[in-house]
Each structure stands twice: as structure tokens, then as C-alpha cells.
Amino acid sequence: MSNEKQTPKAEQASAEPSPFLSSPLPEGTPQGQQQTLKEITQETAIPYYNLPRGAGRDDYVGETTHFGFSTISTKDKEQKVAHVFHSVAKKYDLMNDLMSFGIHRLWKRFAIQMSGVRKGQHVLDIAGGTGDLAKVFSREVGPSGRVVLSDINESMLNVGRDRLIDAGCGNVDYVLANAESLEPFADNSFDLVTISFGLRNVTDKDAALDAMYRVLKPGGRLLILEFSKPVFEPFSKLYDLYSFTALPVMGKIIANDAESYKYLAESIRMHPDQRTLKGMMENAQFQNCDYHNLTGGIVAVHRGFKV
């Protein structure tokens, strides 16, 4: 999706800079525009995507990491993930409804109830995609509050921005940022930080948790809504069968992209389980961490506080 021609309402919405930014946003060719042949990855012929500052670091994870079940160079993962979400952005909401039979709306509603969001608060929704949570947070914080919808993928961010502008959400900023560093944002800026179905796609999850801790105000909370590990073995086998057969087929029929939904199923299996993620949050200095399983552990909501 190109930014060459913005609608007047989009220009108006982005006229005022976010009060949470500590430095200007990076400039460059937007994600989704194909570059010169030298910038095409030789292995996959996937277009090169311009990513925000902070991308491509390997402080924690080393030179290689996983992309689904494959082992790849750490430096390549963010480009591959960018390609997946650029490909599925326009069909993202429809596919979520089909894949989860609409249950994802109940998962998000539960997460919002656990957020404790209040009038006048400042909220950062990381990997906010098409803006489902940000739209509700916009209403809950009211005119005296502020919400930042952030994503590393411009195609997803554009879809979310257009939806929220159409919905009249005038207290939302739209920021292209990398979850691993959150470089545009100053320390101690937000009362609530959320990331919904995005952490599993982050290469350096420990770095991302450190960054989330940094931008939270003392007393603030982190909320992670993510696919997790089913707690009943028979149910887990049935879930595997559905994930690795039905999801790619639906992706092919609806979005003309079976491979992205094959990656989705694999990325879920590679994501840390409930207890492991809780431990990672504690290692990032979050206190009073807990988690709540939803739909038999297919999804879990993790919560932690900055004291």
C-alpha cells in the first residue's frame, strides 16, 4: 500500500505529532514498495521492506532464529514477517473471523476488561494492526486521554488508521515503530501497553519486553493477548489438525495466500508457552505477573506491572 496519495482526512489526522515521541520518525520508502533488484532477497524473491529504527538487532537471539519451523538468518526474519502481513492486510479481519469462528472478538473483549483502562490515560497498542483494541481504548480514555496505534508493518497500520479515522477516533496517533526497541517513544510515557497477537512474530521477544517496560509509567501495566498452548492433549491434537490443514486452505481461498497461513500455524507452535512467557516477563522486571487461559489455552492473556 503506497503513501504517495493520501486522502485529505488522513493528512488532517496526522497533522499533529504524537506527544509521546522522543525523536522524529524515520524517513524512507514506505513498506510495500518494491526496491531495486539488489534489494530483493535472493532466496525468496520477496520485495525489500523499509522498516522503522530498531529493526534487525540480534543482541539476544544470535545470528539465526526461527521463521515458523524453518531456521533462518536473524536479519532476514523481519523482512519475511513484513511480507506476510503486507500480503494479508486487506483480508486480515475477514480471515480472523473465519479462522476463529468469531471467537477472537470475545478474546479481545476479555483482554480489554483486564486492561483496567481509565479516562484520561495514555495507551500504546503495539502491533495494533487493524485497530480493534485501539478503537475501544479511544472511547474508554475519552478526549482527555490518548491512544497510540503502532505497528512495524505500514500496510497493516494504514488499514487500522483508515478504519479509526472513519470511526471518528480523534484521540489516536498512528506510529510506525518496531516492538523490539520502541525507539520513537520516551521513557515512562504510557499507563497501559498492549500487544495483541503480535508478540509471536517478534524476533527478539526479550528486547521487546524490555522496551515495553521502559515506556510504561511506574504503576502502569502490560497486557499480552497471544496464541498459546492448549492445556488438554486430545484437544491439542484436534487443534493441530485444524491449524495445519484448514488454515492454509482458507488462506488460499479467501486471501489467495496459503503460505502466510501455514506460517501462522507454525509461528503459534514456536511461541513460548504460558509459563515460559510469564518467566520472560519477570526477567524483564515486570511484577505480579499472571496469565489467564482462554478456550482451553488456545489463547492466553498475560499481565504484568511496572512497580
UniProtKB/TrEMBL annotation:
Entry-linked CDD domains: AdoMet_MTases
Record-stated family: Belongs to the class I-like SAM-binding methyltransferase superfamily. MenG/UbiE family.
Pfam families in the record: Ubie_methyltran
Region spans: Disordered: 1-35
Entry-linked HAMAP family: MenG_UbiE_methyltr (MF_01813)
GO molecular function: 2-methoxy-6-polyprenyl-1,4-benzoquinol methyltransferase activity; demethylmenaquinone methyltransferase activity
The protein's name in its UniProt record: Ubiquinone/menaquinone biosynthesis C-methyltransferase UbiE
Bias (Low complexity): 13-26
SUPFAM superfamilies, alphabetized: S-adenosyl-L-methionine-dependent methyltransferases (SSF53335)
Alphabetical list of NCBIfam families matching this protein: MenG_MenH_UbiE, PRK00216.1-1, PRK00216.1-5
Keywords from the named record: Menaquinone biosynthesis, Methyltransferase, S-adenosyl-L-methionine, Transferase, Ubiquinone biosynthesis
Broad EC category: transferase
Higher taxonomy: Bacteria, Pseudomonadati, Pseudomonadota, Gammaproteobacteria, Moraxellales
Any one of the GO BP annotations: methylation
Catalytic activity: a 2-methoxy-6-(all-trans-polyprenyl)benzene-1,4-diol + S-adenosyl-L-methionine = a 5-methoxy-2-methyl-3-(all-trans-polyprenyl)benzene-1,4-diol + S-adenosyl-L-homocysteine + H(+); a 2-demethylmenaquinol + S-adenosyl-L-methionine = a menaquinol + S-adenosyl-L-homocysteine + H(+)
Pathway the protein contributes to: Quinol/quinone metabolism; menaquinone biosynthesis; menaquinol from 1,4-dihydroxy-2-naphthoate: step 2/2; Cofactor biosynthesis; ubiquinone biosynthesis
Keyword S-adenosyl-L-methionine (UniProt): yes
Residues that coordinate or bind S-adenosyl-L-methionine: T130, D151, N178, A179, S196
Organism expressing this protein natively: Acinetobacter apis
Function of the molecule: Methyltransferase required for the conversion of demethylmenaquinol (DMKH2) to menaquinol (MKH2) and the conversion of 2-polyprenyl-6-methoxy-1,4-benzoquinol (DDMQH2) to 2-polyprenyl-3-methyl-6-methoxy-1,4-benzoquinol (DMQH2).
Enzyme Commission number(s) of this protein: 2.1.1.163, 2.1.1.201
